[in-house]
Amino acid sequence: MTNYDVAIIGGGIGGLMAAYQIMQNRPQSKVVILEKGYELEKRHCPAGKDKACLHCKICSITSGYAGAGAFSDGKFNLGTTYGGNIGSELGEDMAMEYITRVDKILEGFTPDYPPLYRSSEELKLKCLQHNLRLLDMNVRHLGTDRNLRTMGALIAHLKAAGTEMRTGAECLDIDEKDGAYELSLSPAEKIRTKCLVIATGRSGADFVKKTCQKFGVEMGANSVDIGVRVEMKDIIWREFSSQIYEPKILYRTKTFEDRTRMFCFNQGGLVSAENNHGVITANGHSFADADKKTENCNFAILSSIHFEGDFNKPTEYAENIARNMNFAAEGNIMVQRFGDLIRGRRTNAHRLQGGTVRPTMKAFPGDLSIVMPYRALTNIIETIYALDAVAPGTANDDTLLYGCENKYYSLCPKHNGDFEIADNMYLIGDGSGITRGLSQSGAMGLYVADRITGR
Ligand SMILES: Cc1cc2nc3c(=O)[nH]c(=O)nc-3n(C[C@H](O)[C@H](O)[C@H](O)COP(=O)(O)OP(=O)(O)OC[C@H]3O[C@@H](n4cnc5c(N)ncnc54)[C@H](O)[C@@H]3O)c2cc1C
């Protein structure tokens, strides 16, 4: 049985950054990254504009080296206002120090590192005048293609530095034996490690839950976001995207006084599908290269639901809605024109083709209201009208809504203040329920690496 100093489960940005920093701090360490997905260059999603999701056993969008962020838009949010809670976990100054370090490391692997988009007072005011809150953030936009090159360079560096990098290696179980952890892998093999970093992202939610239950780690309550991916002509949001790249806007709805947010904006982008344990949800991304831009932009509108009292299964709840949406869309994502939703009729192929917005993803034309809960749908509709006040055209009849897009943040296992959930067992990144984005997950990886190596 092979012995390691540190085993990292998950090869997303959190796991990669942890490995990078451990090798920097203590180059002689024997470190392995276990990743259930494929090498970066072998990751390929067969779905696309004309083909629906094929429900691959290992989803190439969410799994493989560089994790769920590999084919993302590569937007690195260099702040703590959103993208996770490490600001409140570590304190603002410490969190910013680690986020800035992620940025510096990425710069070292990116010959053509792009400039920062900074927040705009003028747009903030415009939003405030319409009951909307534009969040402050400096954003580094790598774009999907450059992000892939940067991740490729980081992975090559880790291999050259002596990190053992395994693909197709899923960790199934963890046991504690004689002061070390024994990991059971698929294909069948056991390895031992003194220290363990779990960086399994959202796709590893079940694994984290099982591990926490096994090691008696208490799990806190959390919320879930249910919403849609919205697609329209790019020109409608260009005033915002040309200045700040990514508008992230909060709104309090009139009927329920719930908080909704406009989130994950992709200029010239594509709508994509994400497979979470066989449940297909919508997402979006865009390329930095001008020749790969589409004439559309897309973003999510999400309605947050908090659970209190006896029922506290936010992930299962949202997954059931997504599963029903897949069922009503014959195993696919559903798409509906905003005008059809408002008029209470389903979108059919004819109405979709007749619209001015050409869909960038092949989805099933239908009626979101047969599945989406009334409260969430009301919140989404009110948010679209509110956004229309600052970007007229958002509430156009031809605006497309893809359902559903969910963000799961459940669990939040209790940790010791340094993200250690059991002796020498650390839980980082999106799988911890603490982060929701690339920069903060990477920052958590660096932070934990410093703790492991005594820095
Ligand atoms: C389409 C899309 C677009 C996005 N765009 C952006 C963006 O522009 N900006 C941004 O900040 N964030 C974006 N995000 C979110 C971002 O990708 C995540 O926040 C980030 O990837 C989290 O990093 P992580 O390392 O914590 O987890 P992940 O990236 O999810 O990596 C976890 C890895 O662990 C592996 N794994 C899971 N379980 C096991 C196991 N048992 N054994 C072995 N391996 C396992 C998975 O295969 C995966 O590769 C996007 C996400 C998606 C899906």
What does the main sheet amount to?
8 strands, mixed
How many helical elements?
12
Helix content: 25-40%
CATH topology label of the largest domain: FAD/NAD(P)-binding domain
Beta-strand fraction estimate: 25-35%
Number of strands: 21
Q: Shape from CA axes?
A: globular
Which CATH class of the largest domain is shown? Answer: Alpha Beta
Supply the CATH architecture of the largest domain. Answer: 3-Layer(bba) Sandwich
Say which molecules are bound, naming each kind only once: flavin-adenine dinucleotide
Terminus-to-terminus distance: 30 Å
The CATH homologous superfamily of the largest domain is named FAD/NAD(P)-binding domain
The figure for the number of domains is 2
The gyration radius over C-alpha positions equals 21 Å
Q: Provide the low-confidence segments as ranges.
A: none
Overall mean confidence score, pLDDT: 93
User: Structural class from helices and strands?
Assistant: alpha+beta
Please explain how this structure is put together:
The protein is of the alpha+beta class and 455 residues long. The protein has 2 domains: 2-116 and 139-217 and 412-452, FAD/NAD(P)-binding domain, CATH 3.50.50; 223-408, no CATH class. Helix content is 30%, strand content 27%. The protein contains 12 helices and 21 strands. It has helices at residues 13-25, 86-90, 92-108, 121-128, 143-160, 205-214, 238-244, 314-328, 338-342, 349-354, 374-390, 438-452, and strands at residues 2-9, 31-34, 75-77, 116-117, 132-134, 139-141, 164-166, 170-177, 180-186, 189-198, 223-233, 249-252, 259-267, 270-276, 279-285, 296-306, 334-337, 364-365, 400-408, 420-422, 425-427. Helix 1 packs parallel to helix 5 (143-160) and helix 1 (13-25) packs parallel to helix 12. The radius of gyration is 21 Å and the shape is globular. The protein starts with a strand and ends with a helix. The structure holds flavin-adenine dinucleotide (FAD). Flavin-adenine dinucleotide (FAD) binds next to helix 1, strand 3, strand 8, strand 14 and strand 15.
